[in-house]
Design a protein that fits this description.
Rossmann fold, 6-stranded parallel beta sheet, two-stranded antiparallel ribbon, 8 strands
Length: 357
Amino acid sequence: MVDEFDPLKGKRLQILRETGTVNKKLEPEIDDDTLIRAYRTLVLTRVSDDKAIKLQRQGRLGAYPPSIGQEASQLGPTMALEENDWLVWAFREWGAITWKGVPLWRQFLYWMGNEEGNNYPEGIRVTPTAVPVGSQILHAIGISYASRLRGEDSVALVFFGDGGTSEGDFHEGLNMAGVLNTPTVFVCQNNQFAISMRRERQTASPTIAQKAVAYGFKGIQVDGNDLLGLYAATREAVNRARDGQGPTLIESFTYRMGDHTTSDDASRYRTKEEIEEWEKRDPITRFKRYLIKRGLWDEAREEGMMAEIQDEVEKAVNKAESYHRPSIDDLFKHAYADMPPELREQMECLKQKEVKE
């Protein structure tokens, strides 16, 4: 598939169309239960996203990066991973880490300003949030290279945005992955903007996917609102990486329908008409139509699911807001397995200062 859709020839993979119909020749085999779980995760992501924005406006949550419009771009690739594979995310992939098993309440907790939200349950191979743009790319290469040295049969998948491809970390990382032939899958969520900077002002390259060629491995551009296409492309890339055939760069061609963060006002640099045009390609609506055509979904099930999700989100928020506030110890205890003397001294100093105050 990656050879058939060569980005240098201007080809973009799409399996699921806006109408809910599919290219039967390319449609991946996914069982019904997994498809329904995927749809529920898409909707849960959007409902959680909307709740987070409202909480921020109420002063109950810090600055937050909305993910509306990018739900399939996050979930499709993640569905292709095995339990033992690593997910290295940036800061917008709420749906991806949900699928991987990160509890919803911990996600709210993190954006409320408590780093304990990054403390995931044992066995979940998801790295903490990486807000510095592009830095997580290098982490993924290190993880995948270490996994190979240890003889583990695992792959690392890393998310980043089109803005991240303008960082040195992107070029250094892809070069290193190509040279070392690491089992890494790079997923660029090309949502057309690096905050307010349009993609065409960042690079003269017609696609981001074709940049992989310069580093000696495969690249493919996929319709980023097509969950099936993203799953199929990533599944092939994951299998190739696991078989020792090296990394792959996947460009998910999507659109950020919300603001960059709740501190941004996207109306200052794009038009209402542009957003409306992309709303017609909504990834959740598209996938719902697909399920209906397959006889797996109807409005009665939709109503029941929405009630369950609303309840789940409210319970997650309540749990996050009732969680204990961080202590001085929390600032230090997660940095090292064995705290070095200088940090222990600093911690005790702060504790004494707190007592005096």
